Amino acid sequence: MTIRTKLLGVVVMLCAVFCFGMYFSVKHLVDDIVHQLLWKYSEVTTQYDSEKALSTLSQQIDVAKVLSSNENVIDWALDANDPQKQRKAQQWLLSQRGKFAEDNYYIALNENLAFYMSSKDDTKKQSYLRYHLSPNNPNQSWYFSQRVNHTLFGATIDYDYDLHEVKLWISQPIIHNGEFLGIIGTSLDLGPLVPKLVGKQYPGLATIFVNNSGDIELDSSFTSGDFVNHLKRLRNKKSLHQIIHDQKSYDAVMGAMKQQGQGQETKTLVVTLESSGTFVSIKYIAELGWYQVKFVDIDKVLDGNYLKSFSEISFAMFLLFTVLLYTFMSRRFFLPMADMYRHLKRMLPDSQTPHTHDMVADIHHQLDCLDRELFRSRHSLDSLVRERTETLDQLAMIDPLTGLLNRSGMERELNAELARAKRENGCFGLVWLSIDGMEDVEIMDISSHLEQDKRLRFASQALKKVLREYDCACRWADGEFVILIRSNSVQALKALTARLKTEIHYSNDTFVLSFSLGGLIVEPSMSMQDALSKADSALYVAKTKTKERVHIIQPTSPSQRLRA
């Protein structure tokens, strides 16, 4: 297989990965945007529908709250069997009845469980008693449930078997000093109300109202007007669980309802409904104690072929991109690679040139050979440069005649020692030594330069023998040496002088060699110039002496005087 064939395969594979990756990425992005728009749509429509419907219900609930706190109603509820209080309360309720949208009210008293109702269709009656409530009657459980749960208000769509009416019943408890006295409220016809609550239905959209227990109070089927049959059907179906069969989806919806009831915002919620993904938007209607649940079926709302055009364009782009990329890579990579192969083949001997059918492998082998050759050459060159550099450094710091440090080398050592002294608040010794007679004119006239060199080498050998391994000395000038003693004691300087005299006396039997020596203890506050100047002054004093030509400057600080 030639490299061009391999290249074509690689290009096709890369283009396929790129184009399909781009397709699925864009599809995912578009789906995400569409889903977000659907979610926002469901939230906005849910909010709008609930506010539109509640514009009427909120007013009815407020009227019921006012009636429940009236003193006439409370007096009657406290003594339900008192005819005078009953008459007074009913007269006041009749005067307020017109504030309700349907011009009716009802009241149920806890003391005698009597249920009263008055509407605009009633003729004037002495009493509006309709029936008495019984805890054993399941159709009247709404009253006893609200009494036990102390619900602040209630709203339910129900069929009153005694009045033979299906209505939305709004109930407000009558509370006095924390005591439950009964319920007062009104009923609303479902005909004009249900379309406001449920809204216009479209394919893929559905709205239901459920209570805290997950029971369905209202759905889109009520809009057709046959409320009795619809209510019976809802009572048979009853639970939200019978619409959302998937347990996980059901738990998610119930959890979102709980969050809404607590005033928390819910995140995007997608559940499985009839084997398809469905958005669920939930709005808690506190005035009713209901949850408005809107279902948006994604598959039904969106056209399944909305990405067909994009798929066709992506395939055309895939073909075009493949051709362009193959042409580009052939010109930019394949042809230069073949040319590089020929050049490498000429550079290497035949023994190192492979002969396979894989040009890439051959080039790789040739580059490995060149790399090894370059590595060996670079390693040899680095070693040579390192050796030459070390030699130059040594020559730059060493006096060639004596083998001691030269002036530059000693200045480097002094700078380092002064830095250490300042850092550690320590001291060290500095000695300036001069060989006597090196500047004597007679000697210069009689002795040759070789004789002078001999004396200098002899002095340097003596210094090397008496100095410790961590001390150092340098040839500072023609016959002068500077010695760095890493000690803070004057006694160490004197001991050095004694050792040096002994070494010169016993090691030399051909000529007399004497010297003058000046020294001091260098303190951290001194600079290098100060230390050298004082050592030079001490040497000058030593040269003026006749016998012991040694002068050590005594330390100035109390601590150093004690050490001295």
TrEMBL record:
<keyword id="KW-1133">Transmembrane helix</keyword>
<protein>
    <recommendedName>
        <fullName>diguanylate cyclase</fullName>
        <ecNumber>2.7.7.65</ecNumber>
    </recommendedName>
</protein>
<dbReference type="Pfam" id="PF00990">
    <property type="entry name" value="GGDEF"/>
</dbReference>
<keyword id="KW-0812">Transmembrane</keyword>
<dbReference type="InterPro" id="IPR043128">
    <property type="entry name" value="Rev_trsase/Diguanyl_cyclase"/>
</dbReference>
<feature type="transmembrane region" description="Helical">
    <location>
        <begin position="315"/>
        <end position="335"/>
    </location>
</feature>
<feature type="transmembrane region" description="Helical">
    <location>
        <begin position="7"/>
        <end position="26"/>
    </location>
</feature>
<dbReference type="InterPro" id="IPR050469">
    <property type="entry name" value="Diguanylate_Cyclase"/>
</dbReference>
<keyword id="KW-0472">Membrane</keyword>
<dbReference type="InterPro" id="IPR029787">
    <property type="entry name" value="Nucleotide_cyclase"/>
</dbReference>
<dbReference type="InterPro" id="IPR000160">
    <property type="entry name" value="GGDEF_dom"/>
</dbReference>
<feature type="domain" description="GGDEF">
    <location>
        <begin position="426"/>
        <end position="555"/>
    </location>
</feature>
<dbReference type="GO" id="GO:0052621">
    <property type="term" value="F:diguanylate cyclase activity"/>
</dbReference>
